[in-house]
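pls design
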């Protein structure tokens, strides 16, 4: 999915400054963003936020739905990141400039690695159908960010079970179980589906930082309420996290080794400096480097104007 804000912020994030070395509990309230103008689909953007911009290498998190809506995101570019599409309801068709065409349904994973440059388009299969999901981005480290673009689709993902809880590991590793999806930094991405009264003590890595979000229903994290909406940042230093739910609920868990490199995010690009972002934008506007997306009838999305002021480097926090 694209960042379709008309005036996107240029954001510096990454680096170890501001990483919570010990366990914390910070509630990060997202902001509403409408994709594609006032009549577009509304999403809640929890990363990057004012208070915290990354969790491990996870640098972007949009939560949308459940609502009746039509996803219609025309060809747009990406650099220096991976897009992770995880659906709870609805079906979405992905097409990209390396020739991939893939329908994704709930419980399946689409993973696109932008590398040096890729463009793609996404659209709902059924107009005005119920759609609910999350779109995440993972920042690529220096060793991988100029690699060839790639795309993966995974229908079968590893599952862990506990009484009343089913855990699907869609990215990275959790409790000794690894997703087949290609990742370039140590991280975790999982969905926990709770039956009423479900409870689980999830083993964590103390060197990872983590965050959780209730996607449906309400849950508890270490005995504290986890209402739907906010992203609860947990910091580092935990060896386990106790999660429970009185009613049926679904919870997102993300985490990873704190990302040491400082990155610059603007619109759909992840780079390492203002000049690089300027070059990416110029190449997209000129129609070079990013290729064409075959098969789609959706209009190509132009890049918004760059900010009039140069960015000022900041840490992982406000």
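designed seq:
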């Amino acid at each position: 999915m694209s960042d379709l804000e008309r005036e996107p912020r240029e954001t510096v994030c990454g680096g170890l400054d501001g990483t919570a070395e010990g366990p914390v509990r910070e509630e990060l309230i997202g902001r509403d963003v409408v994709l594609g103008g006032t009549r577009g689909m509304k999403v809640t953007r929890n990363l990057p936020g004012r208070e915290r911009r990354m969790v491990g290498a996870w640098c972007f998190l949009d939560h949308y739905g459940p609502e009746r809506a039509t996803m219609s995101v025309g060809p747009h570019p990406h650099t220096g990141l991976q897009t992770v599409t995880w659906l709870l309801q609805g079906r979405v068709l992905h097409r990209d400039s390396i020739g991939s065409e893939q329908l994704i349904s709930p419980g399946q994973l689409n993973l696109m690695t932008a590398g040096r440059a890729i463009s793609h388009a996404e659209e709902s299969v059924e107009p005005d159908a119920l759609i609910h999901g999350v779109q995440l981005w993972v920042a690529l480290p220096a060793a991988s960010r100029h690699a060839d673009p790639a795309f993966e689709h995974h229908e079968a993902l590893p599952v862990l079970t506990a009484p009343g809880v089913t855990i699907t590991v869609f990215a990275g590793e959790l409790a000794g179980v690894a997703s087949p999806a290609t990742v370039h930094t140590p991280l975790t991405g999982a969905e926990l589906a709770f039956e009423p009264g479900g409870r689980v003590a999830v083993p964590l890595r103390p060197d990872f930082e983590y965050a959780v979000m209730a996607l449906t229903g309400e849950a508890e994290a270490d005995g504290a309420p986890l209402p739907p909406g906010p992203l609860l940042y947990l910091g580092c230093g935990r060896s386990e996290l106790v999660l429970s739910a009185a009613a049926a609920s679904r919870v997102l868990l993300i985490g990873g080794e704190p990302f040491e490199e400082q990155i610059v995010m603007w619109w759909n690009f992840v780079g390492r400096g203002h000049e690089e972002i300027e070059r990416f934008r110029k190449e997209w506007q000129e129609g070079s480097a990013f290729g064409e997306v075959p098969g789609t009838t959706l209009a190509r999305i132009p890049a918004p104007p760059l900010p009039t002021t140069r960015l000022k480097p900041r840490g992982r926090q406000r």
